[in-house]
Design a protein that fits this description.
This protein is an all-alpha fold. Helix content is 62%, strand content 0%. The protein contains 4 helices and no strands. The termini are far apart. The relative contact order is 0.07.
């Protein structure tokens, strides 16, 4: 059982995060988990790394968005 302080800390932490649900077929989920373990990463970390790498790769070939359309943190990743 967690203390009030732990619950409050967790609540504050989760308030800074956005939850995204991804659904895999069972076989694909197993393959991703196995690949993550082989890479020494958690499944979440493995997926986030893959997404960041894809965004970086796509950004190098994508045109810039019109000013003010994307949030600055996303725009910075496109540079």
């Amino acid at each position: 059982m967690s203390s009030d302080a732990q619950r409050k800390a967790e609540s504050r932490y989760l308030a800074t995060k956005k939850t995204v649900t991804i659904r895999f077929d069972p076989a694909e989920a197993g393959a991703v988990s196995t690949a993550a373990a082989a890479a020494g990463e958690s499944t979440q970390g493995y997926i986030l790394t893959a997404v960041r790498q894809r965004m970086e790769r796509d950004a190098s070939s994508a045109p810039k968005s019109p000013a003010g359309v994307l949030p600055p943190e996303v725009e910075d990743r496109l540079e």
